[in-house]
Specification:
Structural class of chain A: alpha/beta
CATH class of the largest domain in chain A: Alpha Beta
Order of helices and strands of chain A: EHEHHEHEEEEHEHEHEHEEHHH
Distance between the termini of chain A: 22 Å
Bound molecules: 3-isopropylmalic acid
Helix content of chain A: 40-55%
Largest sheet of chain A: 10 strands, mixed
Number of domains of chain A: 2
Number of helices of chain A: 11
Oligomer: homodimer
Radius of gyration of chain A: 19 Å
CATH topology of the largest domain in chain A: Isopropylmalate Dehydrogenase
Chain lengths: 331, 331
Amino acid sequence: MKLCVISGDGIGREVVPQAVRVLRRLLPALQIVEAEAGWDTFRQQGTALPAATLAAARECGAVLFGAVSSPAYPVAGYRSPIVQLRRELGCHANMRPTLSLPGCGAAEGIDLMIVRENTEDLYVGEEQSDGDTATAIKRITRVASRRVAETAFRLAQDGGRHRVTIMHKANIMPLTDGLFRDAARDVAADYPQIAVDELLVDTAALKLAQAPQGFDVLLAPNLYGDILSDLAAAFGGGLGVAASLNLGSEAAIAEPVHGSAPDIAGRGIANPVASLLSLALLLRHWWAQPTLAARLEQAVRRTLADGIATPDLGGEATTAAFCDAVLARLD
Amino acid sequence: MKLCVISGDGIGREVVPQAVRVLRRLLPALQIVEAEAGWDTFRQQGTALPAATLAAARECGAVLFGAVSSPAYPVAGYRSPIVQLRRELGCHANMRPTLSLPGCGAAEGIDLMIVRENTEDLYVGEEQSDGDTATAIKRITRVASRRVAETAFRLAQDGGRHRVTIMHKANIMPLTDGLFRDAARDVAADYPQIAVDELLVDTAALKLAQAPQGFDVLLAPNLYGDILSDLAAAFGGGLGVAASLNLGSEAAIAEPVHGSAPDIAGRGIANPVASLLSLALLLRHWWAQPTLAARLEQAVRRTLADGIATPDLGGEATTAAFCDAVLARLD
Ligand SMILES: CC(C)[C@H](C(=O)O)[C@@H](O)C(=O)O
Ligand SMILES: CC(C)[C@H](C(=O)O)[C@@H](O)C(=O)O
């Protein structure tokens, strides 16, 4: 078993090594392959995702991607390494669960998962501009829509879930969002035991804010999934604990949802929970190690329930101390 | 003074006449011109926005648009009448305030306003599909971006507000969303007394959910404004009280944010607050009647503070009874 570890920039360099330390306890034989990506890499090598990193990621199959800084204004030659990596590795689905974790100020009874299409929509990067008028292409294909829907329904079924809600804005975009919705409904027909419904994305944002407990699996095109998963994170304890897994048939990328957080970087106080729970997703859905995944999740839960937390959650633990506490609770 | 009244479908037909009854008390000489639009209109006349309605709206300048039903699946010849009306009347900005109203379960201390670009972005309706691949055009122009930014900053200044936050996703769409952001920043330079900052739209959704009190004016391209204004409504007491004004130089459309609500239509219990507060926006920003606007807003606030509310807010008042109570409190 191999894991390609990309710490990236800022707090990525703090949470990733600590999370990997915990993972090693669960998988002592795990081989770690370190690789570079991000803003510092761009400044040194002229690319934010070097070919060597891509090759290492491909070879390992499993990746932990920390966080990267990105320029506020366009910089020639710079492309988002995570968006590129998702596409290059064929990670077509992005799983983003939101849970009521203890000690995070999360509302009770939330257990939802957003499954976000990860390769197309407005993320195809096809833009044009003459300086006064700019256009971007939103592309939706039946193949990618079916594929991510298939993943969502299979995850629902395997996870003992009951309902998939398709998010779209087909009242304004009947052809693109309509295609996404229709492809997902076609796939739904193969899962008669999972209920399916749909919501306009604006209504979904409202309902999610009013009653996140009312959702089970939410299936969304790329951009709506991006917005709604950050929103959902607000009800699950914030970005410090928001985990994700980019899943394909050739590779999977565990990725904390947070960014590189330059404001707190370098102080050793970043929250490692998002990285730990992303690794738990990798254990369960990529390495097929549900028992190890549950052990890791339980240990994180117990640590939080015992009132141990980093400053973003009102605690005083450092990143390392939190991970020590998790290790002490791994049984 | 003339008002073109378009009740539309469902509860639009219930809240609009009642809200107009209240408005008449404030403007006894107001001339009402009734016009048709919506799904029933489409079924009868083959168009959801008849030419006569558009002409009446143009002639009056001021419009109250209730709510319309729309088909879940594409229907040949059907186009959203409100999207069309916004464009045809040149209502380039959509103001959507969220306030902490009494008796609505709203969080304390919220007083934000979303200013949404209202004519372009993915709403241009340029889609293509071969059945397996569909594309939609997202179009952003400097002219429209500047124009809506101008409105946002002017409203901020005139309303004694302090900060405008530009929402975008320029890390993924540097040319289109970058143009929106840059045009807005250019306009900001003309308003040195108003602070300006920016947020990625996903981060904005998260922060809005965590602390809506932290926002003042939010300036957004069309689609992000659509999603985030529904979201903001969740913290201001829900869609029953969410008001909006579509504003241009030739016309303004007061528009409750809610839909036609077929589930409760016909029972006379729909919440008229969204329509009443939309009319208050029309009074203040179109008819330049700030005193009348404030009287109407005060009367609505007092009614709610007195515990009078429709069932969506946990009360027992009918639409008509609520408006009676508002009339009794207009001083
Ligand atoms: C950093 C950015 C490119 C990324 C995205 O938009 O997908 C992030 O917001 C996320 O959700 O992982
Ligand atoms: C009904 C729909 C066309 C409309 C929109 O998307 O603008 C609505 O959601 C709104 O926010 O006014």
